[in-house]
Amino acid sequence: MRRPPNAPTSRPPTALTVAGSDCSGGAGIEADLKTFAAHGVYGMAAVTCVVAETPCRVVSIQPVRSEIVAEQTACCLGGLRDVAVKTGMLYSAAIIRAVARAIGAHRTAIRHLAVDPVMVATSGARLLREDAIRALQDFLAERADLVTPNLDEAAILDDGRRPESRAEMEAAAGRIAARYGCAVLMKGGHLRRTRSAPDFFTDGTNGFWMETRRIRGIATHGTGCTFSAAVTAHLALGRSLPVAVRCAKRFLTSAIRRSCRLGPWMALNHLQGTARRLDRP
């Protein structure tokens, strides 16, 4: 029987980002939603904070009431199945606990939960209050399937030990995986004295390195958000964690390489038209 011309198509792969809004469009939910769209994934968003910023500096942060964040999350997950979820900037203990409750109440709707532990902006601005660190650690241990720290965030999750070499990155990833009971994608873009951009993934038992030549002269505002969003998109498409992180690494590298200039800023090219070619394992 022919489908009526105005009948809805089947539900597309779906992902939810719970994160802050970056008015400049390079990071936060704006980067996440563009990344989801580039992969053919339907994106939803629960806004935790409104951030006035440029790629160079954070001007001000206005958190959303924790009750509203929880209601947004519940509205997005209610009645759905197989939603891939990522969290980004959660900012406060109250917001983290509200999100944890909302996710816990709708766990059957969630395919995977990736936590990007956003704590410090590239500009140095604090994006997580000091009193929220313990709440974030509890959230990881109770809910996360994957955590995606950069080196500075890894230090906070690993008793102050910042990895300074590939060997230390691998060891730290193993400790974090054991402590929080989740897979770890350790992002090494800030590793010093290296010509490459190395990242290490472990599921707690098996691990592997991903490495690309460092692309010089391009600002990298929003790379962490984009990387974790690309992983989430591939999880929404039904791929396993190891395959998802490999595909996401290729997407991020291409987005950096194809960066564009917007007046005084450099911006990642999320809508690069290459996601379809990059989504093969």
Can you identify the CATH class?
A: Alpha Beta
What value does the Rg take, in angstroms? 18 Å
Query: Any idea what the CATH architecture is?
Result: 3-Layer(aba) Sandwich
Please state the overall shape, judged from the principal axes of the Cα atoms. Answer: globular
CATH superfamily: Ribokinase
Order of helices and strands: EHEEHEHEHEHHEEEHHEEH
Number of domains: 1
Strand order of the largest sheet: 3-2-1-4-5-6-7-8-9
Arithmetic mean pLDDT: 89
Task: Give the number of helices.
Answer: 9
In this structure, how is the largest beta sheet organized? 9 strands, mixed
How helix-rich are the residues, as a percent range?
25-40%
Number of strands: 11
Ranges where pLDDT stays below 50 over 5 or more residues in a row are: 274-278
Beta percentage is 15-25%
What is the subunit arrangement here? single chain
Structural class: alpha/beta
Annotated CATH topology: UDP-N-acetylmuramoyl-L-alanine:D-glutamate ligase
Distance between the termini: 36 Å
Secondary-structure blueprint of this entry?
Layout: E1 14-22, H1 28-38, E2 42-53, E3 58-63, H2 66-77, E4 83-87, H3 93-105, E5 110-115, H4 133-143, E6 146-147, H5 151-157, H6 166-180, E7 183-187, E8 196-202, E9 207-213, H7 223-236, H8 241-257, E10 260-262, E11 265-267, H9 275-278
Helix pairs in contact: 1-7, 2-3, 3-4, 5-6, 7-8
